[in-house]
Amino acid sequence: MTMEQYDALARSVTKEGFGSDQVYGAHYHTWRSAVQLFGILDGEHTVLDGNYDFLKPYYELVKQQEADGVCRSYIDTNASQLHYSGAFSEGNTATMNMGSWYITTLMSELANGNYDSELVGDWGIVKYPHPEGVEAGTTLGTITALAIPTCSEKQDAAWDFIKFACGEEGAEVVAFTGTFPAILNDSVVEQISSLEGFPQDENSKEALKTAQIYLEAPYDAHITEINTVLDTYHKDIMNGDTSIDDGIAKMNEEVGKILGE
Known about the structure:
single chain; two-stranded parallel ribbon; 13 helices; about 45% helix; globular
């Protein structure tokens, strides 16, 4: 889906009401990644850019959805410390953009009875919404690193393990747990989609096949400082403490100073 199609879908399943009668068409966790990272899917921008004007359409989309009752407000979600799993398991959240780790959580929580199957048992996944002109299956990701401490007395053995874990054989072992390995080949996709509890519709299986993955946080000496700035003004925008334009201008200014050092 393009962002426009995603917005239209979320609006079409939104239902106003109280308690169990209300349905939110979308849900965004309080992380800035849930809003900002739509903007990196064109492959032309990253969070290291120093100019964040490209984020404006995505803030406008989400803030308008808030205003129209399509999603919970950031203020309410943050104040109540509502976890994304809690929001989804209530059964009144129609769509949610979330990391692939939540697939395993859904399967296990439904299997052990912690989630009500009447409310959320009929779930599925699709490819991530993307800007117009971007290939379907383009998404974002981050890296879980494996490293060898310099003090290790088993460095050769550790290196052998890393080569195994990062190879095709290791990928199948990781996939067996429902976790997404760095290598996503047909065998891995088949392994994950055949796990008990995984949705059986074709869209869910197809969603596992990615076209392009862009890093949530590319490696850079200043990434921690940049993340702090972006987090700060994301909160200000979503809280309504500053306008979208002013918040982005502050991002540009503060990150510009960091990159100019």
